C-alpha cells in the first residue's frame, strides 16, 4: 500500500516531545454511551474509573452486603423524563469478562432507552456506576397517526405504501399487508448499499487459467535509416535499434521488415514468418 | 404538461486522500480513476447535451472532500501525470494488439477516451472540474447540492450532536457558497443517514431539502399520503425527499439490475492484472503492485470465467434498450399513480452513487445520455426535474416526521456499527468533546492559537469520514483506513495537549496544515458551546 511508513518524517523541528498516538483503552472517564443500530438493537460502550468502582464496592460492603455481579440495566423510558425509578420496565444483562461494549437486543422499535451500568448485590440492591444518554429506536412500519388534512382511505394508504415499496401495481390493501409482512425485510435488504465501488472487494473467482502469447520483434539498422514493419513506419531509437511487441494470435504472421538508407540507395528486407497454434 | 416527474440524483463522493509526501500513492488512484471513468464522462455528456440544445434537469451532489480534491493543485498535477501515462499505455496497446482486431479497436477506443479526458481536464476546464459543475448549474441544467463536510455518518454523532452535526453541515455549506456563489438548496445526507431532529441543523444553513431512503418516508408519521412520490415538509420547514424503490432496483440490484447485462464490460478483467508484468510495470503502482489501469477488453459474457471480447456497439445497443426500458417503466408508474395524487403530478426520485456510472458500470454514462434524450424527445408522459424545481410547484405539502433510517445494507446503521468498526466511536466522541472544550475555552483566539484550533477541527472532521468505518466493514484497504483515523487522532490530540499546556509548536501545526490542507476558511468557533 505505501512505499514507507507515513508520518511526520519530513518535519524534524519539534520543541515538545511527540509520541506516536495509539488508541487508548480509555480516557479516564466514567461513562456509558448508547448508539442506535436499528429498530431492534442498540449498542453501548463504557469506561468505568477504577476509583469509582472501588468506592462503590466499599459502600456495598459497608452496608453489610456484597457485590454479586456487574450488569447493564436497560430501562424503557419512552415518553418519560427518567429519574432512575420511573421507567416503564427494565431488564438486566450480566457482564462477564472484560467487555467494554455490548450490543443490546431491545427488540422494540419506537421506544426510548437508557442504560445504567452498575453492580447488583447479593441482597438484590443496585449500585449505579454510570448512566447513559437516552436514545430512541426507529419506528418500523406504517404509522397509526392520521393527518386530518391529508386523509386517504385505508385502502389508498396501503396502495401507496405498496407502490412506494416496489411491490407492484394493482394490489389491494390485504395483499399489500401480507406482502409487507413477507417482503419488507427484503426490500430494505435488497443490497443497494452505497459505498464507493473503489473499495469493493473483488468477487472471488473460481479456479482459472489464462494463457496468451506475445511476440517480440527486434533488430537494428543505421540510425538514420527508414524502417518499415508490415508496411508501417517505425521510429528507431537513437542508436538505430528497435523493439516491437505484439500479442500473437493463432495462425500465421508474415512480418516483412524493410530498411531504406537515408540517401535512398540501399535497401534490405527480412521477413520472419511465425505460426502459433493452440491446442 | 407532463403527468409526472423523474428526479435523477447522482451523489459524487470520495474521501480526502492526498499524500504529497509520496510520488505515487495507491489510494490516490480512487480519485484519478473516478475522474477518468466517471466525472469526465459525465461532464462530456452534459456538455454535449447543452451543445445539442437538449433541455434537461438533473441533481448532482458533490461532497466537500471531493470538491476539495478537485480544486487541489497538487492532486491536479498528479492527475495530469496519471492521464498522460494512460494515453501512453493505450498508444502502446494499439501497437501491441495490431494482429488482434477485436482488441485493437478497443485499444483505439481507450486511446481516444484518455486523450479526450486530458483535453477536457486541461484545455476545457483548466484542471479544475468543479468549474464544470458550476458551468452546468449556471446554465440551468444541473442542480448541484452539497453533502456533509467529510461525509460523516450523522446517526453515530450522539455526543454533542448539535455541534458535531452542525460543523459537518456548516463547513459543507460554506465551501459550497464559496465555489458556487450561492447557498446550497439541498443536501445529500451521507449514506442517507437520517437522525430525527437533524433537519433543524440543516435549516440553520438555509438548506431547503434532504433525501432519505424509502422507509424513512413510509415509516414517517403521520401516514404519508403520497408515499415516496411527493416531498414532505418536516416541522422545521425543510423538505424531505424519499427514494423510489423500483427505479433504484433497476440500476442497483445485482440480480435484476441493468449493469449485470452480459454485453456490458467486465470490471474485473483489467490489463493491469492480465498482461505480462514487465510490460505493464511502468503503468501500475510504484510499489509494483498490480492494479486496475482502466483498460479492460472483455464483456461480462455470462456467469463464467471464460470471457469474450467486449463489443462496444452491442453494449451501446443494450444501454439504449435499458434506457428505453427505464423510461417506459417510469411512464407506467406515473400513469398508474396519476389518479391517486389529488391532481398532483408525482415525482419519482432515483438517486445513485455517481461512481457507479462509468467506473463500475462502464456503460452507465451512455445509459444516462440515452435516457435524458429519450425522455426529452420520445414521449410526453414524464419530464425530468430536480427537488428544488418540484418544491416550487405546489403551495402546500404534507408535514411529516421521517423515521430514522439510512440507505445502507438492512436500512439502518449496521454497516457503520458492527464488530469491525464499533471501536471507533468512543474515540470520535472523545475528540468531539475535546474539540468543544477547547473551542469553548478559547473563544475568539487569534494567531497561532486560532490556527491550532482550526487544524483540530479539520483533523476531527477528516477522522469522521464514514468511509473509514465502511472500509473496515468491507475488508479491503483496511490498514489504510485504520491508519488514517489514527493519524488524525494523533494530530488532533497532539495539538489539543499543546493548547492545554500552552506550548504550541508552530512547526508541527504547519506540518498538519500542509498535509491536511482542505477547508481553508474553516472557523473552529462553530464548535464553541454557547
Explain what the structure shows:
- The complex is a heterodimer of chains A (279) and B (530).
- Chain A is an alpha+beta fold and 279 residues long.
- Chain A has helices spanning 50-62, 154-164, 173-188; strands spanning 31-36, 41-47, 67-76, 89-95, 101-105, 112-121, 126-131, 135-136, 214-220, 226-229, 232-234, 241-247, 251-254, 257-260, 267-270, 273-276.
- In chain A, the strands form 5 sheets. In chain A, strands 3, 4, 6, 7 and 8 form a 5-stranded antiparallel β-sheet that branches.
- In chain A, helix 2 runs parallel beside helix 3.
- Chain A is elongated and about 115 Å long.
- Mean pLDDT of chain A is 86; it is low at 1-14 and 189-196.
- Chain B is of the alpha/beta class and 530 residues long.
- Chain B is 48% helix and 8% strand.
- In chain B, helix 15 (424-441) packs parallel to helix 18 (478-501).
- Classes of the chains: A alpha+beta (279), B alpha/beta (530).
- The interface between A and B is large, with 88 and 115 residues.
Could you report the average pLDDT of chain B, rounded to the nearest whole number?
A: 96
**Percent of residues of chain A in beta strands?**
25-35%
Number of strands of chain B: 9
Strand element count of chain A: 16
What is the alpha-carbon Rg of chain A in Å? 38 Å
CATH architect. name of the largest domain in chain A: Sandwich
**According to CATH, what is the topology of the largest domain in chain B?**
7-stranded beta/alpha barrel
Amino acid at each position: 500500500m505505501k512505499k514507507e511508513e507515513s508520518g511526520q518524517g519530513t518535519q524534524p523541528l519539534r520543541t515538545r516531545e511527540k509520541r506516536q498516538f495509539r488508541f487508548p483503552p480509555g480516557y479516564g472517564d466514567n461513562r456509558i454511551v448508547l448508539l442506535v443500530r436499528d429498530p431492534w438493537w442498540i449498542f453501548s460502550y463504557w469506561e468505568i474509573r477504577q476509583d469509582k468502582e472501588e468506592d462503590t464496592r466499599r459502600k456495598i460492603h459497608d452496608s453489610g452486603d456484597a457485590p454479586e455481579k456487574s450488569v447493564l440495566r436497560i430501562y424503557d423510558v419512552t415518553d418519560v423524563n427518567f429519574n432512575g425509578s420511573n421507567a416503564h420496565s427494565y431488564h438486566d444483562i450480566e457482564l462477564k469478562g472484560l467487555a467494554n461494549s455490548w450490543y443490546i437486543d431491545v427488540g422494540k422499535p419506537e421506544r426510548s432507552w437508557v442504560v445504567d451500568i452498575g453492580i447488583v448485590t447479593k441482597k438484590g440492591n443496585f449500585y449505579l456506576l454510570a448512566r447513559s444518554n437516552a436514545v430512541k429506536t426507529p419506528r418500523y412500519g406504517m404509522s397509526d397517526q392520521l393527518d386530518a388534512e391529508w386523509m386517504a382511505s385505508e385502502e389508498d394508504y396501503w396502495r401507496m405504501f405498496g407502490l412506494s415499496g416496489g411491490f407492484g401495481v394493482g394490489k389491494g390493501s390485504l395483499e399489500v399487508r401480507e406482502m409487507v409482512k413477507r417482503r419488507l425485510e427484503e426490500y430494505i435488504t435488497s443490497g443497494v448499499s452505497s459505498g464507493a465501488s473503489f473499495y469493493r472487494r473483488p468477487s472471488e473467482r473460481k479456479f482459472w487459467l489464462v494463457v496468451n502469447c506475445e511476440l517480440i520483434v527486434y533488430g537494428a539498422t543505421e540510425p538514420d535509416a527508414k524502417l518499415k514493419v508490415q508496411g508501417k513506419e517505425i521510429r528507431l531509437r537513437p542508436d538505430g535499434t528497435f523493439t516491437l511487441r505484439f500479442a500473437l494470435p493463432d495462425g500465421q504472421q508474415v512480418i516483412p521488415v524493410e530498411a531504406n538508407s537515408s540517401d535512398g540507395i540501399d535497401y534490405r528486407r527480412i521477413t520472419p514468418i511465425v505460426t502459433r497454434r493452440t491446442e | 404538461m407532463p403527468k409526472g416527474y423523474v428526479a435523477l440524483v447522482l451523489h459524487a463522493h470520495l474521501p480526502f486522500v492526498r499524500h504529497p509526501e509520496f510520488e505515487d500513492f495507491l489510494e490516490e488512484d480512487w480519485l484519478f480513476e473516478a475522474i477518468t471513468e466517471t466525472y469526465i464522462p459525465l461532464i462530456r455528456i452534459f456538455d454535449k447535451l447543452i451543445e445539442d440544445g437538449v433541455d434537461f434537469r438533473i441533481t448532482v451532489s458533490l461532497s466537500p472532500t471531493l470538491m476539495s480534491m478537485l480544486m487541489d493543485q497538487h492532486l491536479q498535477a498528479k492527475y495530469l501525470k496519471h492521464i498522460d501515462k494512460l494515453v501512453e499505455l493505450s498508444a502502446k496497446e494499439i501497437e501491441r494488439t495490431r494482429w488482434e482486431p477485436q482488441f485493437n479497436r478497443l485499444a483505439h477506443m481507450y486511446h481516444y477516451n484518455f486523450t479526450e479526458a486530458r483535453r477536457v481536464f486541461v484545455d476545457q476546464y483548466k484542471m479544475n472540474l468543479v468549474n464544470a459543475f458550476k458551468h452546468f448549474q449556471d446554465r440551468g441544467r444541473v442542480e448541484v447540492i452539497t453533502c456533509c463536510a467529510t461525509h460523516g455518518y450523522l446517526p453515530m454523532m450522539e455526543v454533542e450532536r448539535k455541534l458535531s452535526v452542525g460543523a459537518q453541515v456548516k463547513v459543507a455549506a460554506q465551501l459550497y457558497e464559496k465555489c458556487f456563489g450561492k447557498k446550497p438548496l439541498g443536501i445529500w445526507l451521507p449514506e442517507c443517514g437520517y437522525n430525527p431532529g437533524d433537519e433543524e441543523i440543516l435549516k440553520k444553513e438555509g438548506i431547503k431539502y434532504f433525501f432519505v431512503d424509502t422507509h424513512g418516508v413510509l415509516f414517517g408519521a403521520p401516514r404519508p399520503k403520497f408515499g415516496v412520490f411527493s416531498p414532505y415538509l418536516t416541522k422545521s420547514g425543510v423538505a424531505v425527499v424519499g427514494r423510489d424503490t423500483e427505479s433504484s432496483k433497476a440500476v442497483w440490484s445485482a440480480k435484476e439490475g441493468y449493469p449485470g447485462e452480459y454485453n456490458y464490460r467486465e470490471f474485473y478483467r483489467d490489463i493491469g492484472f492480465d498482461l505480462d508484468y514487465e510490460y505493464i510495470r511502468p503503468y501500475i503502482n510504484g510499489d509494483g503492485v498490480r492494479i486496475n489501469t482502466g483498460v479492460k477488453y472483455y464483456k461480462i459474457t455470462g456467469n463464467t470465467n471464460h470471457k469474450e471480447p467486449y463489443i462496444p456497439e452491442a453494449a451501446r445497443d443494450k444501454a439504449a434498450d435499458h434506457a428505453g426500458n427505464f423510461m417506459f417503466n417510469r411512464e407506467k408508474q406515473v400513469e398508474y399513480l396519476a389518479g391517486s395524487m389529488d391532481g398532483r403530478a408525482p415525482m419519482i426520485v432515483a438517486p445513485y452513487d455517481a461512481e457507479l456510472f462509468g467506473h463500475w458500470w462502464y456503460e452507465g454514462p451512455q445509459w444516462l445520455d440515452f435516457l435524458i434524450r429519450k425522455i426529452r424527445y420520445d414521449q410526453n408522459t414524464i419530464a425530468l426535474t430536480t427537488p428544488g424545481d418540484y418544491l416550487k410547484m405546489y403551495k402546500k405539502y404534507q408535514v411529516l416526521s421521517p423515521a430514522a433510517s439510512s440507505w445502507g445494507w438492512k436500512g439502518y446503521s449496521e454497516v457503520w456499527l458492527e464488530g469491525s468498526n464499533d471501536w471507533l466511536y468512543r474515540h470520535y466522541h472523545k475528540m468531539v468533546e475535546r474539540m468543544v472544550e477547547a473551542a469553548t475555552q478559547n473563544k475568539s483566539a487569534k494567531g497561532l492559537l486560532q490556527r491550532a484550533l482550526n487544524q483540530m477541527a479539520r483533523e476531527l472532521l477528516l477522522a469522521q469520514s464514514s468511509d473509514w468505518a465502511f472500509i473496515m466493514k468491507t475488508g479491503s484497504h483496511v490498514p489504510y483506513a485504520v491508519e488514517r483515523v489514527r493519524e488524525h487522532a494523533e494530530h488532533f490530540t497532539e495539538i489539543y495537549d499543546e493548547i492545554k499546556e500552552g506550548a504550541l509548536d508552530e512547526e508541527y501545526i504547519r506540518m498538519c496544515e500542509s498535509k491536511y490542507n482542505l477547508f481553508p476558511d474553516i472557523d473552529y468557533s462553530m464548535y464553541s458551546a454557547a
